[in-house]
Hints:
Layout: E1 2-6, H1 11-22, H2 32-35, E2 38-42, H3 52-62, E3 66-69, H4 76-79, H5 83-104, E4 107-113, H6 136-151, E5 155-160, E6 163-164, H7 171-182, E7 184-188, E8 192-193, E9 196-197, H8 198-208, E10 215-218, E11 225-226, H9 227-238, E12 243-247, H10 267-271, H11 280-288
Parallel strand pairs: 1-2, 1-3, 3-4, 4-5, 5-10, 6-9, 7-12
Antiparallel strand pairs: 8-11
Amino acid sequence: MKILITGAKGQLGVQIHSIIDKGKSEIGKIDDNIVNSEIRYVDLDKLDITNLKEILDYIEEFIPNIIVNCAAYTDVDKCESDIDNAFKVNSIGPCNLAIAAEKVGAKLLHVSTDYVFNGKGNISFKEYDIPNPVSVYGKTKLLGEQYVREHCSKYFIVRTAWLYGKYGKNFVYTILNAAKEKGYLEVVNDQRGNPTNAEDLAHHILKLITTENYGIYHCTGIGECSWYDFAYKIVDYAGINCTVIPITSEKIERVAKRPAYSALDNMMLRCTLGDEMREWEKALKAFNRWH
Length: 291
């Protein structure tokens, strides 16, 4: 079996690489068929997913059985001014991969986001709920989903949220560093979602691609909280002497609008393969053992 992983230098791509190398995650063992596969890990320096000809040439040469797309333009605020590049990476890139995957009969797993929803309501969004993004980031990610569905017959779209991991920049590292430096933090308490450990997400991605259970999936940590709750637990588990104060979003100047409520329900996982995602607090506590 041949597997191509794009966006391999990002936190999720590196996490997937690490788990495959070990043959297991913190949740459990990885399928031997994946561990024994020929796997290529590529990022922008090796493959530009926004260039259709380059993608087609690469895919037709390698002929993968599975493509996992972890590449994304994730700077939510910068997307508002750098619209063309956000569109190219988040929309055209997945479109190109879908076209190429269909041409060689490959499965395509594409990673998406909770920001495809508008944030209105107080009940976790299910896979059948209608997206209505409020930011350029969310809009370009949604279009990427639509292109995948239009051009590839064997697709998995995996929406996740509030992702953090051992590799790269993320909210956990930002809070840990700020807490150590300042001893005092103000964090918004009026945006709610699901903190997700990249270890858990990577495990489920590797579990999904061995199946033919195609469709849209939500894959986040179990349970929901505010950014303040999340930050408070990070500081608490790390044992840092720091005061964390809740504030409203109005006190922070941001370019892009964020959904006030974007918690996801892993209904598709529960109803097909089984949802092994850990409770967000349990997964966070496990993560902090590494630091």
